[in-house]
Amino acid sequence: MAEPSTDAEGAEASRADDTVGDPLDGMSGHVGTVHTGPGHPVHEAAGHAHETVDARPDEYAHLLAPLHAFAAAGPDDPERERLRSELARGFHPVVRHIAGRYRHRGEPVEDLEQVGTIGLINALDRFDPGQGTPFLAYAVPTITGEIRRYFRDRTWSMRVPRRLKDIQSRMTRAQEELASRHGRAPRVSELAEHLGISREEVIEGLQAQDSYRSDSLDQLVGDTDNPLGEIVGGIDAGMDAVEARESLRPALRKLPERERTILMLRFFGNQTQTQIAAQVGLSQMHVSRLLARTLVTLRGHLADEQTHHDGVPEAG
User: Fold this and answer.
1) Sign of torsion, CA 264 267 269 274?
2) Among the residues of 127-272, which ranges form H helices?
3) What is the full per-residue pLDDT of the chain (316 aa) written as tens digits?
4) CB 72 within 8 A of CB 92
5) Counting beta carbons within 10 angstroms of the beta carbon of residue 97, is it exposed (0 to 12), middle (13 to 18) or buried (19 or more)?
């Protein structure tokens, strides 16, 4: 869930955010109509500072008095919460139909409506009837900006720097424009020239597209019945022992040949102490003592190595 905006810049901030698209946005610059209720279209020009609202005079007329009462109520007025709830319910069709514009972008519409409701509440709290601006002309860009901010900040499957998100968003629109102009996919150099950025930044933006959605490990590969998870490499358990083995290598070389042989037969040959005793010509008890003493020596070497790497001075 997106966090509500707390800045005091009102609808202008939301309009500014509205120009930052999500990775699936191909509608920037598109003039569309948001039907906020029967007979109530809201004409919205995405990416423009001004939006016009064509509404029937009686569409939300019953909410005008509560809206003015809410704006006039003080923060401690007990009626304020009741009026806010009434207005949020009354203007909810606006939220529902704006959220519906984004229903095919991979996010549940219910989540988008919740985000849009945050924008509506922000618009209610900031609206000043004395400014002379109709409420819907103020609320629509605020709600839209909140939803678009949600796509920008909350729906990426991997954390991507804001700079790359902005580049990627601009690139989506540029790709569509150049593809329409040339009849083919644009080259990296053409995108760079069109956007006024370097080729390296274009490549970074293209790579960022892969971070928006992650594939499921249960997804089938090609035309086979094999899920992706079966061909993806796993964690090599032996990697944990690499550092210990490399640290022990010098210590093993310093061991007497007999002790080194006993150690190898026990831990690499998986022989019992009795089998080792028969092979090296010692008693099982003697092999046990040599093995225990050798392990103490190696553990001490590992402890010294760890102390050296951690930079902890030895006591003395």
Assistant:
1) positive
2) 135-154, 162-182, 188-195, 199-208, 242-254, 257-267
3) 444 443 333 333 343 344 333 333 333 333 344 444 433 444 443 333 333 334 454 678 889 999 999 999 888 888 999 999 999 999 999 999 899 988 877 788 899 999 999 999 999 999 998 888 899 999 999 999 999 888 777 665 566 677 777 777 788 788 889 999 989 999 999 999 999 989 988 888 877 766 666 666 777 776 777 777 777 777 777 777 777 778 778 888 888 899 989 988 998 888 999 999 999 999 999 999 999 999 998 888 777 766 765 554 444 4
4) no
5) buried
User: For residues 281 and 316, is the Cβ–Cβ distance under 8 A?
Assistant: no
Pairing of strands 52-53, 31-35: unpaired
Asked whether 117 and 99 are in contact (CB, 8 A), the reply is no
- Containing H/E element for 33? strand 31-35
DSSP β-bridge partners for residue 41: 35
| DSSP 8-state class, residue 212 | T
Cα angle value 301/305/311 (rounded, 5°): 145
Residue position matching structure tokens 């007497």? 256
Output the six-digit token pair for 67. Answer: 């809206």
CB 157 within 8 A of CB 211: yes
Q: What phi and psi, each to the nearest 5 degrees, are found at residue 52? A: -105, 145
Q: CA nearest 85: which of 125, 129, 138? A: 125
Give the contacts of 134 (CB within 8 A, at least 6 positions apart): 53, 55
Residue 269 tokens read as 């040959």
What are the structure tokens assigned to 203, written together?
Answer: 């490549």
Distance CA 157, CA 82 (A): 38
Alpha-carbon span 290 to 295, nearest angstrom: 9
pTM: 0.44
Question: Which residues make beta-bridge pairs with 52?
Answer: 43
